[in-house]
Amino acid sequence: MRLCLKHELEYDPALASDLIRMIEQEFREPLRACYPRDILQQILWAAQYRQEKPRLDREALESACNNYFLAI
Q: Domain residues for 61?
């Protein structure tokens, strides 16, 4: 939530739950404190590259996780 406020993104508690589920179930990784920061940074970098305003939604979250965990 703090990172969303810092980067002026709308915080959705349901997305936080989705992120936890994706990390644990889809990517089979243990939860780590750095993941929220790192995954949000993936979203910000992607938006910057596309010259778009960053948005935090399910699609952006899935794409960031796929990039971060190198899913094919």
A: 2-68
Domain count within the chain = 1
The rounded distance, in Å, linking the Cα atoms of 51 and 14 is 27
Cα dihedral 47→22→14→17 (10° resolution): -130
Confidence of residue 46 (pLDDT cuts 50, 70, 90): very high
Q: How confident is the model at residue 72 (pLDDT cuts 50, 70, 90)?
A: low
- Give dist(CA 37, CA 40) in Å, integer: 5
Distances (CA, A) of 42 to 12, 68, 69: 18, 7, 11
